[in-house]
Amino acid sequence: MYTKFAEIPVPTGAQFLAPEFNSIQLSFSVRDHERNVKKSLVKQIVLSNSGPATVLPAQEVNYVAARYSLSGRNRVVLREAKEGSGTKYFVELWRGDSLRFTLDVTEKHGAFYADEFIGSLSFSHDEMSMVYTAEARADKMDPYAKFRFKADLGEGLSGKRRPTAFIVHWDKDDVPSVSRIETPEQLYLGQYIFSRDPENRLFAAAYERQSDWRLLGVKGCFNRPRGIWQVDLAKEAAYPEVWKCTLTKLTDSHLSCRSPQIVDDKLVWLSEAAGGPHVSTSTVQSLSIGPETSSREATTLLDVVEHPREDGFPGLYAPANFPTYPTLCLDPRSSSPTHLAVHSTIGSRTGVVLVSLKGGYSVADMGDGYSWNVLATDGESRIVCSRSTPAIPYEIVVGEVANDTSITWTVVDRPTLSQDVAAALSSIKTQIIKVPDREPTETIVIQSSSNGEHPPTVLVPHGGPHGTTTTAFNAATTALVLEGFTLSHPNYTGSPGFGDAAIRGLVGQCGRRDVDDCIGSLDHIVKLGIAQDGPGKLFVMGGSHGGFLAAHLIGQFPDRFTAASMRNPVISGGDTSTTDIPDWYYSEFGLSYPVESSPKGTMLSSDGSHIQYSASSAAPTSSGPVLPPLMTSEHFKKLQLDSPISYVDHVKAPVLLLIGLDDRRVSPAQGIEYYHALKARASDKSSVDMLVFKGESHPLEGVEAARVCYEAARDWFKAKAQF
């Protein structure tokens, strides 16, 4: 069943094609196991006021990125084409079904950046220009450029050079020109958007290099030294080939900020605390924009929530970005936006949150067990989302939002499922169970009615540790349940969605409180009769920090689990030599790892020289920059004692390790050394096995790798289970 489930298209984005067109374009990602590739699809849905929506056939697309303008009249496409041993890059502008121009930008830059961290693709408000980011070209004047070390943004972005922004402008005859924005080397800018006024101003989010010239890995890390910057282009008579600029930081240094959006006369963005836990409670900030934007103070529209409020709202735990078009206008007396729509983790689910631009929030009814993703709004009163459960894959729903923020939902699309898949899914049942005396811990238990009274149970702690398992559909989870297992996914202390105090409650307690929460959740479902102790009855699996917990559990409770499977686990906390996130190993275990970020008000020129220091830092201090810590013997000892390697002598359970050899987050050597340590101690050498995946990084998410990891863990458990 895994392959059939994994090939169900996953919604990745949407856009209303202008409200008057009454249609939505959806984008999907789908796995093709036959060709061992991931494909991108688009599908158009035409809405109707008097009947069901019309769903047009999905089409495969081969561009890097595409975006409709707000009016829906223009569409820009970023495309790459293999040519011989190289690649060529093109920018296309379409108006309706007419290709207005194709611009060859191969000599300007390398690969386009369309990721959620530094990618940009945005129209100006007059729809006569657009901005995108791409890989900077190597310095042709440097004879050693090919070999010179340049820091990159880590896991998932390995080897990518510094991002550079380009503006494509076209005149009334659609004759294009392209300009490169020259920005300081110490800033890695992305997420560019145009200001409404003045015309030569943009806003962007920028990561900052540290004093040791390290760029801390960004994927899954919302605590990075990152701010919102105002980018003022030098005034020119025409669009130059290279545009000089002045950059002004608009946000405070203690905040990590992302996803800037223009909403009427305001700039809004998401922020979290810089440093410390890699994920914490998001806040929504707003700043009035105009000629004196940089001197104004931001307003907090939605603040940190320490503990869930009386209505159950735990604070905002937003994705990496707002939807491309997040605004709603719910005031019948005005045409101005009133709310922003975004999804957020709420306990063990994700739900739709409407953030008022006057401050405050509204949480939509989440329905029976669903987890929701907000894809887009029409800028007025409609919102399109995907929703799913372990038994219901990815429905597309459109909501009509009333003035009081209540929402009426209509399902407009469902995946096409074969009869056997639909029948199998109908047996799946899910419940969220709170764990007594271990607040806020709760666990998602997924079962099949066809599995009998006491099937073997697999405990599956999530990674992060500041990640959350939700009730969203997951191909591997549902497939393993249908193989005869019950799955229990504990959301332990530190999981987002339970208040900021819960996240910070794990800091300095890794290997203790999270382990105790996981075993406490298992004890509870055993007490409830859902799981059963004994040979062949309890298993554990996890990846990254989930692998850390799995290794801890089989070491600290060696007689409890029949077998374990781990993907790229953290085994030795003292091994930080190759990781892109060395701060994680310090901060999560209660050690200091300071990060540096420019103060608000800092002004830089294109060449990186300071034009002005903020009032709070009139000039660099004589004490010099803040130095990242070195791994001392005391730190190493603490980190090793808090790690699973310190319990290796107690392990009895058979262990399967799944290791990505290109992992930038957790050194593959950690899992490999654990394999050798276990082999040396095992009386039955066949009880320890390891699969390694060349070319695969931390998530092991390649089409073939994900399938093999699932099948290997399934077979490892089934060979030892008592059904």
UniProtKB/TrEMBL annotation:
Q: Locate the Peptidase S9 prolyl oligopeptidase catalytic domain: which residues?
A: 476-584, 643-721
GO process terms (BP): proteolysis
A single GO CC term for this protein reads:
cytoplasm
Q: Does the keyword Hydrolase apply?
A: yes
EC identifiers of the protein: 3.4.19.1
Q: Mind listing the GO molecular function terms for this protein?
A: omega peptidase activity; serine-type endopeptidase activity
List the Gene3D superfamilies hit by this protein, alphabetically. Answer: alpha/beta hydrolase
Q: Which InterPro entries match?
A: AARE_N (IPR045550), AB_hydrolase_fold (IPR029058), Peptidase_S9_cat (IPR001375)
Give the SUPFAM superfamilies listed for this entry.
Answer: alpha/beta-Hydrolases
Stored Pfam families:
APEH_N, Peptidase_S9
Record-stated family: Belongs to the peptidase S9C family.
Please report the name of this protein according to its UniProt entry. acylaminoacyl-peptidase
| Species whose genome carries this gene | Ephemerocybe angulata
